[in-house]
C-alpha cells in the first residue's frame, strides 16, 4: 500500500517540478513564487471505502466543528462557501466541476481570499478502486492577498488545518519519496 500511496504523491509531484516543493510524511506543498500559485497535497485514510463527495462533506462539517463555528460552511447550488463568523461575504467559494464515486473536484470560484478568475481546484480523489486511501489536493490556488502576506498567514493556516484533518482520519504515516 505504501508503494501505491507514494505513486499517488509522485503523480502529483511530477506536475510541480517547476515549483519549490516542501515535503512531510504523507503530504507536500508546492509553491511557485514566479506565478504566485500554491498547491497542497495530502493523503488521508478512511475506515471504509467512501464516495469522494462524502469525504468532502465530512471535511466541511469537520471544519465547522473544530473551528467552533468561527468558520461556517454552507452548501447550495453545488457550491460550498466558507465564511468567517463575523463577515457576510464568503472567504472562499468552491463549486463542484466533477463528481463521481472516485473523484470530486471543486473550482475555486470566488471569495475574499481568492483571486478572481483563477484556475485553482480543490480535489478529493480515491487512490485506487479497492482502497481506503484518498488524495486531497488544493492545486494552482491564487490568493487575493499580497503574495508574501499569503505565504506568512493563509498558506500555513491551510497546512495546519489539513494536517489536523489527516489526524482526524487517522492516516497511515507514509514516508514521502522526495
Number of helices: 4
Question: Cα distance, first to last residue?
Answer: 17 Å
Helical coverage, percent range: 25-40%
Strand order in the largest sheet = 1-2-3-9-8-7-6-5-4
- Indicate the multimeric state: single chain
The largest β sheet comes out as: 9 strands, antiparallel
N-to-C SSE string, H for helix and E for strand: HEEEHEEEEEEHH
Overall body shape: globular
Mean of all residue-level pLDDT scores: 85
Strand content: 35-45%
Short synopsis of the structure:
The protein has a single domain, classed as Alpha-D-Glucose-1,6-Bisphosphate, Chain A, domain 4, CATH 3.30.530. Helices cover 28% and strands 35% of the residues.
Describe the structure.
There is one protein chain. The protein has helices at residues 2-15, 52-66, 147-152, 154-168, and strands at residues 20-24, 27-32, 37-45, 71-76, 79-84, 92-99, 103-110, 121-126, 133-141. It contains four helices and nine strands; from the N terminus they run αβββαββββββαα. The protein is an alpha+beta fold and 178 residues long. The chain is globular and about 40 Å long.
Primary descriptors:
Alpha-D-Glucose-1,6-Bisphosphate, Chain A, domain 4, nine-stranded antiparallel sheet, 9 strands, 35% strand, globular, disordered C terminus, DUF1990 domain-containing protein
Write the layout of secondary structure elements.
Elements: H1 2-15, E1 20-24, E2 27-32, E3 37-45, H2 52-66, E4 71-76, E5 79-84, E6 92-99, E7 103-110, E8 121-126, E9 133-141, H3 147-152, H4 154-168
Antiparallel strand pairs: 1-2, 2-3, 3-9, 4-5, 5-6, 6-7, 7-8, 8-9
Amino acid at each position: 500500500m505504501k508503494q501505491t500511496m507514494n505513486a499517488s504523491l509522485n503523480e502529483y509531484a511530477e506536475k510541480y517540478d517547476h515549483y519549490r516543493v516542501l515535503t512531510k510524511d504523507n503530504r507536500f506543498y508546492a509553491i511557485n513564487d514566479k506565478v504566485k500559485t500554491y498547491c497542497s497535497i495530502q493523503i488521508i485514510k478512511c475506515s471504509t471505502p467512501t464516495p469522494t463527495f462524502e469525504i468532502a462533506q465530512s471535511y466541511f462539517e469537520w471544519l465547522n466543528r473544530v473551528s467552533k463555528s468561527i468558520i461556517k460552511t454552507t452548501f447550495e447550488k453545488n457550491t460550498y462557501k466558507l465564511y468567517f463568523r463575523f463577515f457576510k461575504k464568503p472567504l472562499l467559494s468552491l463549486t463542484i466541476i466533477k463528481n463521481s464515486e472516485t473523484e470530486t473536484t471543486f473550482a475555486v470560484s470566488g471569495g475574499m481570499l481568492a483571486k478572481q478568475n483563477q484556475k485553482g481546484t480543490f480535489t478529493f480523489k480515491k487512490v485506487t478502486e479497492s482502497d481506503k486511501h484518498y488524495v486531497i489536493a488544493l492545486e494552482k490556488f491564487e490568493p487575493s492577498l499580497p503574495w508574501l502576506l499569503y505565504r506568512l498567514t493563509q498558506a500555513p493556516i491551510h497546512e495546519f488545518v489539513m494536517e489536523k484533518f489527516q489526524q482526524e482520519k487517522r492516516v497511515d504515516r507514509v514516508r514521502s519519496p522526495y
